[in-house]
Amino acid sequence: MWHFNKQVPHWFLSPWFPQQGETRKSIYEASQTFENDCLYSLEQTYITINPIWIDHLSRNAGILKSFCYWKLSLYLQKHNPNVPDIPNKLVKPAKRNGLAKQRKVWDVVIEELGGVDCIYTNTRLYKNGFAVEHFIPYAFVSHDLFWNLIPACPSFNSSKSDKLPQLEKYFDAFYGLQKTAIKIIKYRMPKEKLLEDYLSIFPDLESLQKLPDDYKAKFKTTIEPLITIAGNNGFEYMF
Fold it and tell me: Considering the domain boundaries, does residue 52 fall inside one?
């Protein structure tokens, strides 16, 4: 109860109390009179639903429950990379998310290095002259986590499509580029949220600063089973 009381109830009410400087204590106190018609009042061990919301919650319970399950599936997907496509086993998205944010981060990395080599073609890549490529195909993993993205030659990226990379041929270069990128991002963009994508592989963000030698094996043990499963499900390998 202490954990949930500290982390959840008063933050959920924050839209009803947008004043700058609102604290946990002040939100608790204001909620107890249903100030601003907030959804519920807060006590230390329970909440009381505001009567004016009961009809709305009852009529829309199905939608609200589905929303909670959808957000849960997204959370599970992010933190369980070895079980791909959890949300889309429920509903396939009508439109994929763009990669503009990820591209900007790779722009910083490439700018810092003065260019990088495509791990597939050895073509020299420069800022604004590359494709953001899913090492393991998006069609299989259904996510855009940064640890699975690298810059690649645009024409090769188009031809690669949903094919799987051969790990014995490309993993070392892939990991080397990822390792370099992590160090640059930690230095140039220490508060970049995309670094949190690596928490599904590595234990904490502080350890990303040094990336001990055994982290290469950790990375591979995340990627290798996914590629094997994808191959067993009919995805073709690159040659």
Answer: yes
Decide the pairing of beta strands 116-117 and 47-49. unpaired
Tokens representing 120 are: 């597939």
Helix pair angle (61-79, 51-59), 10° resolution: 80
Is the overall model pTM greater than 0.85, yes or no? no
Structure tokens at 58: 């009852």
What is the CA angle 193-198-199, rounded to 5? 95
Residue 94 lies in a domain: no
What single letter denotes the amino acid at residue 77?
Q
Tell me the residue range of the domain where 163 lies. Answer: 100-232
Give the containing element (helix H, strand E) for 48. Answer: strand 47-49
Listed residue (128, 124, 130, 122) closest to 157, CA to CA: 130
pLDDT digits (tens, 9 = 90+) for 46-76: 889 999 999 999 999 999 998 888 888 888 8
Side-chain-facing half-sphere of 16: CA atoms under 13 Å: 23
The answer on 225 and 135 residing in a single domain is: yes
Residue 18 burial (C-beta neighbours within 10 Å; 0-12, 13-18, 19+): exposed
